């Protein structure tokens, strides 16, 4: 039995499929060749069992034997400590991986998720667009100058930044060719394609189980 367990919902509606954040942990495990299993909590009933693992009744969370972690970023950094494929081992490379992982969450996703929420809820005016555009402009400059965020190689920081940026729908904000090429290149990695296909298959199996219960 696998020691690493990635926890996600048993089912989600069509919209978020392919984007549910368990994909980040699946993807990292695939990149690093770590053995893992996927277990589920019910989407419809988020009871005390779920809250005991994830205090906001969200997914993903990660079990690694005695260790339990919620927050996809924390899970990624935990996995990165297991494999040099996800994070260099020298102090500078490790520090920069931590830095860019936090930047993806706290400087980009912190803006992109509220922006996305206003978009999908049909707000008359999305006042966050300018803020997000400014962050994306800075990322465009960075991707014009370099291929990877850290140490001239793929790290878990690229995994997370690419995942955050693909949700931010770069195309909604005009021509940012360097960022678009970065996201396209990183999401073309076999580990991402497998993680995404596995997530889609997982929720399709959830459809079948719901249909059988109905
Ligand atoms: N900061 C959290 C966010 C987790 C999150 O937003 N999870 C979504 C799925 S991708 C979720 O569980 N949504 C259901 C909800 O918020 O009720 C993380 O990165 O793990």
From TrEMBL:
Residues 90-214 form the GST C-terminal domain. Residues 9-87 form the GST N-terminal domain. Pfam families: GST_N. This is Glutathione S-transferase family protein. It comes from Neoaquamicrobium sediminum.
């Amino acid at each position: 039995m696998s020691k690493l367990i990635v926890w996600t919902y048993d089912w989600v509606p069509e919209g978020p499929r392919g984007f549910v954040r368990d994909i980040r942990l699946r993807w990292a495990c695939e990149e690093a060749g770590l053995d893992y299993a996927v277990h589920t909590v019910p989407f419809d009933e988020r009871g005390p069992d779920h809250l005991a693992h994830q205090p906001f009744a969200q997914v993903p969370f990660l079990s690694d034997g005695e260790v339990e972690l919620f927050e996809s970023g924390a899970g990624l950094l935990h996995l990165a400590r297991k494999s040099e494929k996800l994070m260099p081992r020298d102090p500078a490379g490790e520090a920069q991986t931590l830095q860019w992982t936090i930047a993806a969450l706290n400087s980009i996703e912190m803006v992109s998720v509220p922006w996305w929420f206003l978009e999908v809820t049909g707000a008359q005016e999305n006042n966050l667009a300018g803020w997000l555009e400014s962050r994306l402009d800075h990322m465009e400059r960075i991707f014009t100058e370099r291929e990877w965020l850290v140490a001239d190689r793929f790290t878990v920081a690229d995994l997370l930044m690419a995942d955050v940026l693909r949700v931010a729908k770069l195309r909604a904000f005009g021509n940012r060719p360097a960022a678009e090429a970065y996201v396209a290149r990183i999401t073309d990695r076999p580990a991402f394609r497998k993680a995404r296909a596995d997530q889609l298959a997982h929720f399709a199996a959830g459809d079948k189980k719901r249909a059988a219960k109905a």
